[in-house]
Amino acid sequence: MTASASAPHTTRGKLASSMSHEQLAEITELFANRRKGYSLEAPLYTDRSVFDVEMQAIFGTHWLFAASIAEIPEPGDYVTLDYGPHSLIVLRTDDGGVNVLHNVCRHRGARVLTAASGSTGNLVCGYHSWTYSPEGDLIHASAPGEGDFDKNCFALKRAHGRIHAGLIFVSLAQEPPADFDEVAEIFEPYLAPHDISRTKVAYQQDIIEEGNWKLVMENNRECYHCDGHPELACSLFPTWGLSDETVPPHLEEVWARNQKAQADLEERCRRYGMPYEVVEQLDTRVAGIRISRESLDGDGESFSADGHRLSKKLLGVLRDFRLGRCSMHLQPNSWFHFQSDHVITFAAYPINEHQTLVRTTWLVADDAVEGDDYDLEQLTHTWKQTNLQDKAFVELCQKGAASPAYQPGPYMKSEYQVEAFINWYTQRVLEHLA
């Protein structure tokens, strides 16, 4: 684990303080009166004032997944991360850690780095060439007649950054949620065998969905709609989230096959000393998590038409391709699939109250050769198609939430993780508003 060295800048309170007491009271009432087991009232999906509160209460406070170290493997490598009104630079340091800097020049506010990713030494603003060190210190701002200009007062503002199991997380809060350390202790043993430090990016896909970020997350947290994912259904059992009591008759045979595959997977995990048990703390802690290792259909190796491996190279220290998927959900905005042959990371970044950027990144072993060890189109096919299908579902829901005829509907039993996400969300916002 590594963390940024200096205290971060925070915007907590600025947006909410600009609202009238009446606006805040109305928003607070919406959250306080939320009916458990039902979707949210329409303004919570459509209203700009609610979005502004979320940018403080959720995206200005909690730990967010930003990237993997496979995306910035060398010192000086960086990615820029944009969500809501924020833009961050996530920069790999010489000691293997990360610096997280607000991408806002201290001169007149221009973006310092404009590319989505790259490599740099010092950071040079393209407007007036103010130059910053990788730590954000202002080291050059020469101009005629500026004899008493104190560069020490104009460093780039910082945010928190840390690395766990090869995943990079950022937080804008002055004091981020402390229980994230406990959550990292939960997930690190599950992810360690896949060793992200020995992977590389095979492909990254950005999709802008015309929907509120919470609708993106709700859609992700259930498989009630998985009949709409024919490619994914080849390898992901459509009984995900069901139990003996909730399996419909037409899925009983699939459920039995799933149970047998899961028992076989757990036996292999015990043989290799790998954790597989479900840990589900989605709304019972501040840094909510769900993680488990779950079987896949067919050959049980990867997300393909027959469940067979999509790369010939095993990841990390793994010795068996038949290890299903390690699935992890982290509140508020990320989910992950770790297979024996590749990793897929997902994150949702709000753009505004009705648009969300969904970023998907495929990682393979760093010595895997495209064309020899994996075919890129086959590697990405299932989730490219699934993402486009989910985009359409989310956009249908956003249109519905904007309709005068909309009213909250009940979550089904198999959608209990959607309820857990919404319960976590409402708790966090109410805590902030209080």
UniProtKB/TrEMBL annotation:
PROSITE patterns: RIESKE (PS51296). Keywords: 2Fe-2S, Iron, Iron-sulfur, Metal-binding, Oxidoreductase. Residues 63-170 form the Rieske domain. InterPro entries: Rieske_2Fe-2S, Rieske_2Fe-2S_sf, Ring_hydroxy_dOase_asu_C_dom, Rng_hydr_dOase-A. Pfam families: Rieske, Ring_hydroxyl_A. Residues 1-20 are annotated as: Disordered. The keyword Iron-sulfur applies. Its cofactor is Fe cation. This is (Fe-S)-binding protein. It comes from Glutamicibacter nicotianae.
